[in-house]
Amino acid sequence: MGQYRLQRLDDQLRDEISTLIMRGQVKDPRVNTFLSINRVEVTKDLSYAKVFVSSFLPDGDLKRGVAGLNAAAGFIQREIAQKLRIRQFPKLTFVVDAGMKEGFKMVQKLNELERERNENSVVEPENSVVEPVETTPKNN
């Protein structure tokens, strides 16, 4: 299968799984509507698909949600296979994707460092003397 077609299948699976979660069609109580599907990676032979799940929920809730999605993987596969027309439907495996949460923490740290830098640059010593700097080059 061509790379472009695999990418389209990845996107379509991501959208369909997200729709099932948002509509509450996955009845497992561990699956929360605050779970988001970041990306899907389908193998070239269409046997397996790794689904990356993230959320801003606490890590324990996220892990329980992923366990619930893995338990409901058969149901999710059947529901999506009825909509899509592909020869072989991949076996879904759900994994925790901590990248979004880590990126958010990194942005917070950068904002905090910038705020500290701005606070330090505003404060100047009271008795500081500014000496003029010579801008013309000296002739030797």
In short:
The protein is α+β, with helices and mostly antiparallel strands.
In words, what does this structure look like?
- The protein is of the alpha+beta class and 140 residues long.
- It has a single domain, classed as 2-Layer Sandwich (GMP Synthetase, Chain A, domain 3), CATH 3.30.300.
- It is built from four helices and three strands; from the N terminus they run αββααβα.
- The chain has helices at 3-22, 59-71, 73-83, 99-122; strands at 36-42, 48-54, 91-96.
- The protein has a three-stranded mixed beta sheet, sandwiched between helices.
- β1 and β2 form a beta hairpin.
- The longest helix has 24 residues, at 99-122.
- The N and C termini lie far apart (73 Å).
- The mean pLDDT is 86.
Helix-strand blueprint:
Blueprint (H helix, E strand, L loop, with lengths): L2 H20 L13 E7 L5 E7 L4 H13 L1 H11 L7 E6 L2 H24 L18
How many domains would you count in the coordinates?
A: 1
Q: What order do the SSEs take from the amino end to the carboxyl end, as H and E?
A: HEEHHEH
Task: Characterize the main sheet.
Answer: 3 strands, mixed
* Overall mean confidence score, pLDDT: 86
- Unreliable stretches: none
Radius of gyration: 26 Å
| SS element count, helices | 4
The CATH superfamily turns out to be K homology (KH) domain
**CATH third-tier fold name:** GMP Synthetase, Chain A, domain 3
